[in-house]
Amino acid sequence: MPYFTTSDGTEIYYTEQGTGQPVLLSHGWPLSSDAWQVELKLLADAGYRAIAHDRRGHGRSSKTYTGNDMDTYAKDLAELVESLDLTNLVVVGHSTGGGEVVRYAAQHGKGRVAKVITAGAVPPLMVKTDSNPEGTPIEAFDGIRAGVLKDRSQFYQDLSEAFFGANRDGSNVSQGAKDDFWRQGMLVNLAAAFDCVKAFSETDFTEDLKALDVPIFIAHGDDDQIVPIAAAALKSAELVKHGTLKIYGGAPHGVYGDYQDEFDEDMLAFIAE
Q: Catalytic: which of 58, 220, 224, 236?
Protein backbone atom coordinates (compact mmCIF):
# COMPACT_ATOMS: atom_id res chain seq x y z
CA MET A 1 0.00 0.00 0.00
CA PRO A 2 1.47 3.38 -0.98
CA TYR A 3 2.12 5.97 1.71
CA PHE A 4 3.47 9.49 1.54
CA THR A 5 5.09 11.19 4.55
CA THR A 6 4.31 14.89 4.99
CA SER A 7 6.77 17.52 6.19
CA ASP A 8 5.50 17.10 9.77
CA GLY A 9 5.97 13.33 9.70
CA THR A 10 2.34 12.31 9.09
CA GLU A 11 1.87 9.23 6.94
CA ILE A 12 -0.83 9.73 4.32
CA TYR A 13 -2.25 6.63 2.64
CA TYR A 14 -3.29 6.93 -1.00
CA THR A 15 -4.37 4.62 -3.77
CA GLU A 16 -4.18 5.10 -7.51
CA GLN A 17 -5.54 3.27 -10.52
CA GLY A 18 -5.08 3.81 -14.24
CA THR A 19 -2.91 6.11 -16.33
CA GLY A 20 -3.47 9.42 -18.09
CA GLN A 21 -4.57 12.84 -16.90
CA PRO A 22 -4.61 12.77 -13.08
CA VAL A 23 -7.85 13.10 -11.12
CA LEU A 24 -7.51 13.33 -7.35
CA LEU A 25 -10.51 12.63 -5.12
CA SER A 26 -10.97 13.89 -1.55
CA HIS A 27 -13.50 12.22 0.76
CA GLY A 28 -15.95 13.54 3.32
CA TRP A 29 -16.06 13.20 7.11
CA PRO A 30 -15.73 10.65 8.72
CA LEU A 31 -14.91 8.53 5.68
CA SER A 32 -11.82 7.50 3.73
CA SER A 33 -10.69 6.99 0.14
CA ASP A 34 -12.89 3.87 0.14
CA ALA A 35 -15.85 6.21 -0.38
CA TRP A 36 -14.55 6.75 -3.93
CA GLN A 37 -14.11 3.09 -4.94
CA VAL A 38 -16.68 3.27 -7.76
CA GLU A 39 -15.26 6.53 -9.11
CA LEU A 40 -11.67 5.25 -8.97
CA LYS A 41 -12.54 2.37 -11.27
CA LEU A 42 -14.81 4.49 -13.46
CA LEU A 43 -12.10 7.09 -14.01
CA ALA A 44 -9.37 4.51 -14.60
CA ASP A 45 -11.60 2.71 -17.12
CA ALA A 46 -12.15 6.04 -18.89
CA GLY A 47 -8.41 6.60 -19.33
CA TYR A 48 -7.53 8.70 -16.31
CA ARG A 49 -5.02 8.29 -13.49
CA ALA A 50 -7.39 8.18 -10.52
CA ILE A 51 -5.94 8.92 -7.09
CA ALA A 52 -7.62 9.07 -3.69
CA HIS A 53 -6.07 9.63 -0.26
CA ASP A 54 -7.12 9.12 3.33
CA ARG A 55 -7.07 12.50 5.09
CA ARG A 56 -4.81 12.64 8.15
CA GLY A 57 -6.54 10.96 11.09
CA HIS A 58 -8.87 9.08 8.72
CA GLY A 59 -8.76 5.62 7.18
CA ARG A 60 -5.26 4.16 6.98
CA SER A 61 -3.38 7.44 7.46
CA SER A 62 -1.64 8.40 10.71
CA LYS A 63 -4.02 8.77 13.67
CA THR A 64 -3.15 12.40 14.28
CA TYR A 65 -3.75 14.46 17.39
CA THR A 66 -2.54 17.70 15.76
CA GLY A 67 -3.08 19.32 12.38
CA ASN A 68 -6.74 18.39 12.09
CA ASP A 69 -7.67 21.69 10.45
CA MET A 70 -8.39 22.83 6.92
CA ASP A 71 -5.12 24.67 6.35
CA THR A 72 -3.15 21.53 7.23
CA TYR A 73 -5.42 19.29 5.17
CA ALA A 74 -4.80 21.52 2.14
CA LYS A 75 -1.07 21.57 2.83
CA ASP A 76 -0.99 17.78 3.08
CA LEU A 77 -2.74 17.60 -0.27
CA ALA A 78 -0.29 20.06 -1.81
CA GLU A 79 2.68 18.01 -0.59
CA LEU A 80 1.15 14.80 -1.97
CA VAL A 81 0.50 16.43 -5.35
CA GLU A 82 4.05 17.77 -5.45
CA SER A 83 5.54 14.41 -4.49
CA LEU A 84 3.67 12.76 -7.36
CA ASP A 85 4.41 15.78 -9.61
CA LEU A 86 0.83 15.99 -10.82
CA THR A 87 -0.04 18.59 -13.46
CA ASN A 88 -3.15 19.29 -15.53
CA LEU A 89 -4.84 17.97 -12.40
CA VAL A 90 -8.56 17.69 -11.74
CA VAL A 91 -9.47 17.72 -8.05
CA VAL A 92 -12.79 16.29 -6.85
CA GLY A 93 -14.11 16.73 -3.33
CA HIS A 94 -17.21 15.59 -1.48
CA SER A 95 -18.46 17.40 1.65
CA THR A 96 -15.40 18.20 3.82
CA GLY A 97 -13.29 17.09 0.87
CA GLY A 98 -14.94 19.78 -1.20
CA GLY A 99 -13.61 22.37 1.19
CA GLU A 100 -10.21 20.74 1.15
CA VAL A 101 -9.87 20.80 -2.64
CA VAL A 102 -11.18 24.36 -2.92
CA ARG A 103 -8.62 25.62 -0.40
CA TYR A 104 -5.88 23.55 -2.00
CA ALA A 105 -6.67 24.78 -5.51
CA ALA A 106 -6.94 28.42 -4.43
CA GLN A 107 -3.87 28.56 -2.21
CA HIS A 108 -1.50 25.88 -3.52
CA GLY A 109 -2.69 24.65 -6.90
CA LYS A 110 -1.74 27.39 -9.33
CA GLY A 111 0.02 25.87 -12.34
CA ARG A 112 -1.10 22.37 -11.37
CA VAL A 113 -4.91 22.39 -11.10
CA ALA A 114 -6.94 22.52 -14.31
CA LYS A 115 -10.45 21.95 -12.94
CA VAL A 116 -12.31 21.57 -9.65
CA ILE A 117 -15.39 19.44 -8.96
CA THR A 118 -17.35 19.46 -5.71
CA ALA A 119 -20.35 17.48 -4.49
CA GLY A 120 -22.32 18.36 -1.37
CA ALA A 121 -19.38 20.53 -0.40
CA VAL A 122 -19.14 22.64 2.76
CA PRO A 123 -18.01 25.99 1.22
CA PRO A 124 -18.42 28.83 1.62
CA LEU A 125 -19.32 28.48 5.34
CA MET A 126 -21.52 25.97 7.13
CA VAL A 127 -22.05 27.55 10.55
CA LYS A 128 -24.74 30.17 11.07
CA THR A 129 -23.45 33.68 11.75
CA ASP A 130 -24.86 37.18 11.51
CA SER A 131 -23.50 37.40 7.98
CA ASN A 132 -24.49 33.81 7.14
CA PRO A 133 -28.06 33.46 8.45
CA GLU A 134 -28.76 30.46 6.18
CA GLY A 135 -26.08 28.45 8.00
CA THR A 136 -26.51 25.68 10.53
CA PRO A 137 -26.58 26.76 14.21
CA ILE A 138 -23.41 26.00 16.19
CA GLU A 139 -25.50 23.87 18.55
CA ALA A 140 -25.88 21.27 15.79
CA PHE A 141 -22.11 20.91 15.52
CA ASP A 142 -21.79 20.81 19.29
CA GLY A 143 -24.24 17.91 19.12
CA ILE A 144 -22.04 16.10 16.59
CA ARG A 145 -19.02 16.50 18.86
CA ALA A 146 -21.00 15.26 21.85
CA GLY A 147 -22.23 12.24 19.90
CA VAL A 148 -18.73 11.33 18.74
CA LEU A 149 -17.41 11.57 22.30
CA LYS A 150 -20.23 9.66 23.95
CA ASP A 151 -20.63 6.68 21.59
CA ARG A 152 -19.10 7.20 18.18
CA SER A 153 -20.11 3.76 16.94
CA GLN A 154 -23.82 4.36 17.53
CA PHE A 155 -23.51 7.96 16.39
CA TYR A 156 -22.11 6.93 13.00
CA GLN A 157 -24.86 4.35 12.59
CA ASP A 158 -27.48 6.99 13.32
CA LEU A 159 -25.81 9.58 11.10
CA SER A 160 -25.83 7.25 8.11
CA GLU A 161 -29.62 7.54 7.96
CA ALA A 162 -29.64 11.27 7.20
CA PHE A 163 -26.39 11.04 5.21
CA PHE A 164 -28.01 8.81 2.60
CA GLY A 165 -31.56 10.08 3.03
CA ALA A 166 -32.56 6.67 4.35
CA ASN A 167 -34.97 8.44 6.70
CA ARG A 168 -37.10 9.64 3.77
CA ASP A 169 -40.26 7.89 2.63
CA GLY A 170 -39.59 5.59 -0.29
CA SER A 171 -35.86 5.37 0.34
CA ASN A 172 -34.15 2.26 -1.01
CA VAL A 173 -30.75 2.77 0.64
CA SER A 174 -29.19 -0.61 1.38
CA GLN A 175 -28.08 -1.77 4.79
CA GLY A 176 -24.72 -2.46 3.19
CA ALA A 177 -24.22 1.20 2.27
CA LYS A 178 -25.03 2.27 5.83
CA ASP A 179 -22.76 -0.42 7.24
CA ASP A 180 -19.89 0.77 5.05
CA PHE A 181 -20.37 4.34 6.25
CA TRP A 182 -20.07 3.03 9.82
CA ARG A 183 -17.04 0.90 8.93
CA GLN A 184 -15.16 3.84 7.47
CA GLY A 185 -16.16 6.13 10.32
CA MET A 186 -14.80 3.75 12.92
CA LEU A 187 -11.31 4.05 11.38
CA VAL A 188 -11.03 7.73 12.37
CA ASN A 189 -9.25 8.33 15.65
CA LEU A 190 -11.34 10.27 18.14
CA ALA A 191 -9.21 13.42 18.30
CA ALA A 192 -9.19 13.76 14.51
CA ALA A 193 -12.93 13.12 14.23
CA PHE A 194 -13.67 15.67 16.96
CA ASP A 195 -11.39 18.40 15.59
CA CYS A 196 -12.55 17.93 12.01
CA VAL A 197 -16.06 19.05 12.99
CA LYS A 198 -14.70 22.55 13.62
CA ALA A 199 -12.65 22.35 10.41
CA PHE A 200 -15.62 21.56 8.18
CA SER A 201 -18.17 23.76 9.93
CA GLU A 202 -16.31 26.93 10.89
CA THR A 203 -13.78 27.38 8.08
CA ASP A 204 -14.72 30.27 5.80
CA PHE A 205 -13.88 29.51 2.16
CA THR A 206 -15.28 32.73 0.71
CA GLU A 207 -11.93 34.16 -0.37
CA ASP A 208 -10.78 30.78 -1.71
CA LEU A 209 -13.84 30.58 -3.95
CA LYS A 210 -13.26 34.12 -5.19
CA ALA A 211 -9.61 33.33 -5.91
CA LEU A 212 -10.27 30.25 -8.06
CA ASP A 213 -9.30 30.98 -11.67
CA VAL A 214 -10.13 27.56 -13.14
CA PRO A 215 -13.51 26.04 -14.03
CA ILE A 216 -15.44 24.50 -11.14
CA PHE A 217 -18.43 22.15 -11.31
CA ILE A 218 -20.60 22.49 -8.19
CA ALA A 219 -22.97 19.56 -7.58
CA HIS A 220 -25.48 19.42 -4.73
CA GLY A 221 -28.60 17.51 -3.83
CA ASP A 222 -31.58 19.67 -2.92
CA ASP A 223 -32.52 17.24 -0.11
CA ASP A 224 -29.08 17.32 1.52
CA GLN A 225 -29.74 17.06 5.26
CA ILE A 226 -26.07 17.35 6.24
CA VAL A 227 -24.88 20.35 4.20
CA PRO A 228 -28.04 22.30 3.30
CA ILE A 229 -27.82 23.68 -0.21
CA ALA A 230 -28.92 27.25 0.64
CA ALA A 231 -25.78 27.96 2.67
CA ALA A 232 -23.48 25.97 0.41
CA ALA A 233 -23.72 25.39 -3.35
CA LEU A 234 -26.14 28.24 -4.03
CA LYS A 235 -23.77 30.73 -2.41
CA SER A 236 -20.59 29.17 -3.81
CA ALA A 237 -21.91 29.46 -7.35
CA GLU A 238 -22.27 33.21 -6.89
CA LEU A 239 -18.68 33.62 -5.65
CA VAL A 240 -16.68 31.76 -8.30
CA LYS A 241 -15.62 33.17 -11.66
CA HIS A 242 -16.03 30.08 -13.83
CA GLY A 243 -18.66 28.00 -12.10
CA THR A 244 -21.25 25.49 -13.29
CA LEU A 245 -23.95 24.66 -10.74
CA LYS A 246 -26.06 21.52 -10.99
CA ILE A 247 -28.83 20.78 -8.49
CA TYR A 248 -29.88 17.14 -8.20
CA GLY A 249 -33.56 16.93 -7.35
CA GLY A 250 -34.35 14.87 -4.26
CA ALA A 251 -30.71 13.84 -3.83
CA PRO A 252 -29.23 13.43 -0.33
CA HIS A 253 -25.76 14.26 0.98
CA GLY A 254 -24.20 10.88 0.28
CA VAL A 255 -23.37 10.24 -3.38
CA TYR A 256 -25.38 7.05 -3.81
CA GLY A 257 -27.85 5.33 -6.11
CA ASP A 258 -29.37 7.37 -8.94
CA TYR A 259 -27.55 10.47 -7.66
CA GLN A 260 -24.23 8.69 -7.93
CA ASP A 261 -24.97 7.45 -11.45
CA GLU A 262 -25.89 10.93 -12.64
CA PHE A 263 -23.05 12.68 -10.84
CA ASP A 264 -20.47 10.25 -12.20
CA GLU A 265 -21.73 10.84 -15.75
CA ASP A 266 -21.57 14.62 -15.21
CA MET A 267 -18.09 14.35 -13.67
CA LEU A 268 -16.71 12.52 -16.70
CA ALA A 269 -18.36 14.98 -19.08
CA PHE A 270 -16.98 18.01 -17.23
CA ILE A 271 -13.45 16.59 -17.14
CA ALA A 272 -13.58 15.83 -20.85
CA GLU A 273 -14.73 19.34 -21.86
A: 224
